[in-house]
């Protein structure tokens, strides 16, 4: 080949590949977008299932929340991805691939040898029987000379090779393992077997009998072999092999396809690939689909080789079926003649047969007009120079113009499918959006519901606490004495009186004995009288301080009643009673994320409430104990009063004892009377404290850190909604999350559909 011809071929191939590479990223982006779309569609279907299962969705509503055509939509997406993947495979190749096909004895293998420089040891030829068993891809390599074989796994061999035979032959039992296949007993052909099935049964029996030869190759991996050894992996046994060898090896049965690297003899074809396509019937079952898949994904153009033979120098019905198969494989390519070129193989000496065959082909294929539908190339497949000049050069000239158009049509076909898929998805999403529009699983918005329920809670607590305040107020403002308070004071007073009458805790005799001993020791009553008056005053005060238990009980009762009102309306938020309940409430109100400072202050204020005799009453009642000294001022009028005159003898001791009792009774009586007539009673204290608590809790306005009671009730409700209203918001939240998930996925899916359309 002249240098300018070689340069032309190399330049054209490089130009075609450069154009494709520029389009590849856009195609890959579309594939990624559609895969993402499919995944989102699956997620949407799952989200719809969860939404329909929610208890708040009734049966009628649930029936509309579905994508009934999801299987069809996913099939459309899968088809779109498949078509785009075919475009990706086409644009990803670093070679322009020419497929070579033809029936036995047409010169297909001879043509492959002339292009690749291989010989019968790698691409065998045969005079009558089909030879090539495995699809082979042959590429130019200046350094490598090898074959890389992609092998079946045991599973793929059984599923793709053996099971189809069983199904076609009606053999019900399918071997699931190689051992089952090995041990299967296959029948011999019988006279009543359909003649079309006889070859299938023969091939199945051959595969079964030759398992020993290829079982070790069923690894599912790859194997690299020298080209001198490749024939056994890609070709059928020769007639001689079958005649001379008892057990015929069939290692090609383990091979899915082969890649052969070798140095082509023609210059300028570094980026040219040749794909050997076994003819119809040469692989066994489903050969046509195998052809179509190989052609669509691996070749850019096909050379269909036809040779004039003695007695068959015409276009046959079988040739027409082959051309029809190739026509299926061209996919979206508009012009049939762009994808298939007819090669008339005319070996030396066969010119007389070729001419009438060529005329018959023109009549049957091109309607009698040269090149009307298909280009016919004439060559001698045995002659590499003839193949170069008459096949490669005109073919690449044509591809320089037509291959970019075919690529564009391939891409347009995939995009047309994508457009149809987008339309189907958009329509389905529109129907779904219409069904889901306005649906909210609980019929309410969670935030609005919390606000409403917070307001209701505030009102309920206001009503309940107001009733409590009203009861306390009635008691506090009553003109009648509080019977419980009177009883408590009386009990303490009686206790004090009993103590006095009983001899101040030691008895009269012991008391008098101690008095006399002190008189003798001190030579007078001075120290004894002072010590005893001091002791009596302290003891009376201590015993009246027992009222603290009553005061504390009264306040705790108020806390308990407040707590019960709150607990009644707050679900499972609080447990316990009284101060324990209020302490838990205070902790809730001190939530660092949603604090309620005013309400917290109200609760802690009620917890801090105290009414104690020593601190609150004793300072005011202390003057009533002034009777208990020898000289004092009358606490009633402030007039000075002198105590009794005493002699330091037994009579004086007895007189002092009676005087102490009298003064002690008088002090206790005056304290009792003052308590009963007092202006401040426990019920008044608790009434005032609870009323203030309710005012702050329910009616406080915005001040300082506090946003006011209304907002604080909303904060409390938001922070503890699941405890205050058990189960209510768990259902709402779950339902709304499911609803929102569906809405989000619909919007996301629509965006992805749009992105898939814009991806470039």
Please explain how this structure is put together:
By secondary structure, this protein is of the alpha/beta class. It has 4 domains: 1-94 and 393-439 and 732-760, no CATH class; 96-152 and 220-382, Rossmann fold, CATH 3.40.50; 159-210, no CATH class; 446-726. The protein has 28 helices and 11 strands. The strands form 2 sheets. Strands 4-3-5-2-6-1-7-8-9 form a 9-stranded mixed beta sheet, with helices on both faces. It has a two-stranded antiparallel ribbon with strand order 10-11. It starts with a helix and ends with a helix. Mean pLDDT is 84; it is low at 280-285.
Could you give a quick summary of the protein structure above?
The chain has 28 helices and eleven strands. It is an alpha/beta fold.
Q: What's the topology here?
A:
Elements: H1 3-53, H2 59-64, H3 70-92, E1 96-101, H4 108-116, E2 136-140, E3 146-151, H5 154-169, H6 178-183, H7 198-209, H8 211-214, E4 222-226, H9 231-234, H10 239-244, E5 255-262, E6 272-276, H11 287-298, E7 301-307, H12 317-329, H13 336-339, E8 340-345, H14 351-365, E9 375-379, H15 384-436, H16 446-477, H17 483-501, H18 508-522, H19 526-544, H20 547-568, H21 578-589, H22 597-607, H23 613-621, E10 631-633, E11 640-642, H24 650-676, H25 682-699, H26 709-719, H27 721-724, H28 728-758
Parallel strand pairs: 1-6, 1-7, 2-5, 7-8, 8-9
Antiparallel strand pairs: 2-6, 3-4, 3-5, 10-11
Helix pairs in contact: 1-3, 1-15, 1-28, 3-15, 4-15, 5-7, 11-12, 15-28, 16-20, 16-25, 16-26, 17-24, 18-24, 19-24, 20-21, 20-25, 21-22, 22-25
Key terms:
two-stranded antiparallel sheet; 61% helix; rod-shaped; 760 residues; single chain; Rossmann fold; 8% strand; 9-stranded mixed sheet; 11 strands; alpha/beta
């Amino acid at each position: 080949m002249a240098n300018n011809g070689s340069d032309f071929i190399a330049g054209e191939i490089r130009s075609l590949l450069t154009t494709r590479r520029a389009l590849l990223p856009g195609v890959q982006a579309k594939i990624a977008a559609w895969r993402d779309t499919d995944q989102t569609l699956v997620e949407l279907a799952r989200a719809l299932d969860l939404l329909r299962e929610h208890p708040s969705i009734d049966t009628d509503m649930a029936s509309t929340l579905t994508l009934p055509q999801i299987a069809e939509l996913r099939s459309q997406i899968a088809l779109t991805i498949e078509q785009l993947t075919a475009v990706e495979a086409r644009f990803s190749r670093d070679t322009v691939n020419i497929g070579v096909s033809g029936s036995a004895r047409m010169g297909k293998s001879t043509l492959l040898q002339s292009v690749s420089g291989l010989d019968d040891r790698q691409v065998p030829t045969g005079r009558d029987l089909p030879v090539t068993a495995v699809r082979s891809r042959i590429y130019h390599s200046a350094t490598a000379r090898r074959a890389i074989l992609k092998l079946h796994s045991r599973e793929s061999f059984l599923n793709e090779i053996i099971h189809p035979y069983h199904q076609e032959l009606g053999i019900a039992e399918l071997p699931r393992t190689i051992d089952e296949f090995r041990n299967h007993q296959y029948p011999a052909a019988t006279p009543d077997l359909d003649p079309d099935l006889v070859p299938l049964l023969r091939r199945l029996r051959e595969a079964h009998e030759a398992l020993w030869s290829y079982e070790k190759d069923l690894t599912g991996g790859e194997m690299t072999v020298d080209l001198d050894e490749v024939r056994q992996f890609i070709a059928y046994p020769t007639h001689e092999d079958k005649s001379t060898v008892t057990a015929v090896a069939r290692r090609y049965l383990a091979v899915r396809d082969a890649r052969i690297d070798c140095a082509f003899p023609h210059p300028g074809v570094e980026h040219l690939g040749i794909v050997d396509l076994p003819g119809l019937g040469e692989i066994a079952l489903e050969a046509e689909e195998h052809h179509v898949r190989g052609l669509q994904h691996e070749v850019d153009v096909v050379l269909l080789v036809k040779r004039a033979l003695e007695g068959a120098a015409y276009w046959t019905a079988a040739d027409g079926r082959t051309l029809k198969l190739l026509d299926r494989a061209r996919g979206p390519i508009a012009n049939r003649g762009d994808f298939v070129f007819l090669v008339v193989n005319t070996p030396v000496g066969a010119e007389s047969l070729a001419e009438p065959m060529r005329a018959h082909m023109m009549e049957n294929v091109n309607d009698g007009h040269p090149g009307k539908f298909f280009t016919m190339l004439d060559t001698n497949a045995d002659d590499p120079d003839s193949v170069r000049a008459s096949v490669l050069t005109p073919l690449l000239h044509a591809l320089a113009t037509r291959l970019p158009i075919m690529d564009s049509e391939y891409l347009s076909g995939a995009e047309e499918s994508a457009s149809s898929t987008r339309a189907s998805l958009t329509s389905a999403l529109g129907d779904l959006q219409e069904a889901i529009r306005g649906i909210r699983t609980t019929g309410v918005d969670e935030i609005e519901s919390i606000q409403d329920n917070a307001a209701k809670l505030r009102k309920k607590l206001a009503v309940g606490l107001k009733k409590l305040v009203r009861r306390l107020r009635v008691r506090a403002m009553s003109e009648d004495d509080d019977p419980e308070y009177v009883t408590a004071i009386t009990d303490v007073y009686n206790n004090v009186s009993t103590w006095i009458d009983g001899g101040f805790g030691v008895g009269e005799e012991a008391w008098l004995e101690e008095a006399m001993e002190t008189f003798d020791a001190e030579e007078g009553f001075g120290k004894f009288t002072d010590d005893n008056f001091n002791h009596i005053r302290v003891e009376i005060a201590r015993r009246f301080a027992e009222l603290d238990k009553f005061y504390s009980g009264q306040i705790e009762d108020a806390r308990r009643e407040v707590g019960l009102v709150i607990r009644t309306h707050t679900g499972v938020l609080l447990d316990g009673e009284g101060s324990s309940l209020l302490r838990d409430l205070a902790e809730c109100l001190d939530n660092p994320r949603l604090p309620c400072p005013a309400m917290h202050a109200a609760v802690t204020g009620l917890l801090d409430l105290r009414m104690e005799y020593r601190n609150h009453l004793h300072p005011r009642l202390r003057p009533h104990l002034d009777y208990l000294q020898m000289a004092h001022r009358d606490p009633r009028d402030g007039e000075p009063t002198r105590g009794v005159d005493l002699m330091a003898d037994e009579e004086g001791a007895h007189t002092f004892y009676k005087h102490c009792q009298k003064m002690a009774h008088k002090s206790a009586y005056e304290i009792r009377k003052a308590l009963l007539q007092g202006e401040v009673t426990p019920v008044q204290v608790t009434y005032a404290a609870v009323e203030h608590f309710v005012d702050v809790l329910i009616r406080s306005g915005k001040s300082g850190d506090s946003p006011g009671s209304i907002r604080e009730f909303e904060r409390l409700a938001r922070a503890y909604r699941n405890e205050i209203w058990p189960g209510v918001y768990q259902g709402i939240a779950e339902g709304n999350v499911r609803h929102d998930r569906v809405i989000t996925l619909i919007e996301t899916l629509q965006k992805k559909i749009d992105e898939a359309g814009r991806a470039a």
